[in-house]
Amino acid sequence: MANKLDPHDLVALMCYVFEGRQDGSSSSLNPTPIDPQTSTRPFRILDVLASLSISEAGSQVVAVSLQLNSREREIRLMVTENQEVDSRLVDYLKSIWGNLQALSEEFAAKRGSDMHEEGSPSILGEMALQLNAGLFREIYKHSLKKQMKLKEKWWSPLVDFVKKLFIRRERSLQGVEFNLYQVVTGLDSVFQLACKLHCPPGQELTDDEWKVVYYDSVWANLKARLVLADQNNFGCELLAQELNGTPLLTPIMVLGKSI
Prior knowledge:
Shape: globular
Strand order of the largest sheet: 1-2-3
Radius of gyration: 21 Å
Largest sheet: 3 strands, antiparallel
Helix content: 55-70%
Strand content: 5-15%
Number of strands: 3
Number of helices: 9
C-alpha cells in the first residue's frame, strides 16, 4: 500500500472491507483482542480523528489506531487517552466513523458514475453537503470548550490589529489585507452564534444558524489560508511589523486551525 495516504484511501478501504456486509455499522469500534491475522497500518486520517477527539483545552491527549482484519472483513478503531476513556468519546467517534462511511458511499457512487474521468472524483452532491455540514456540527459541538478557550486567548488582539489596519489604510483594504478583514468578519458571526451554545444557560442553534456557522467557518478558513500563504508565509509578520512590531502570525494560525 502507498506510503502517502489521504482520506480517499480510507474511504476506499472502508468500501472494500464492508463490501458484502448487510449493514455499514461501526460496531467494530469496540476494542477486542488482536487477531494474529490482523494487520495494523498507520493512516494520517487517524491523527485527524485523534485531534478531533480533543474536547478539553489543556492536557488531554488522545490516540487512535486502526486494525484491519481481512479474514473477518472487519475494521477496528482503538482509542487510548491519558486518562480513562469516556464512553461519550467512544460514542462520538462511532458517530464520526458512521458519517465517514456515509461519505464513502457517496464517493463510491460518484466514482462509479465517472469511470472515464481521470483522478479521484469530488463529492459535490446535495447529500454530501448535508453530510459534511452534519459532521461539522458534531465536531464543533464536541470541541466547543476548546474552541472558546482559543477565542479567549487570541480573538481580541486579532480584532484590535485589524481595526488599527483599517484606520491606517483609510478604510481601503486590498489583497491579503482584505482577506484578513474577511477572516475576522467571518469568525465574528461564527463566534456570536457559538456563544449561544457556550455561554450559560446554553441554547441550541437552529438549522439555519448552524448553516451560518458552517459556511462562515469554511469561508474564514479559506481566507486564513490565503493570508498565511502571502509572501512565502511571511506576509502577516511583515504587515504586523509595519504597523507596530507586534507578532500576528500565531493568532491567525491558531484560529485558522480551529475552524
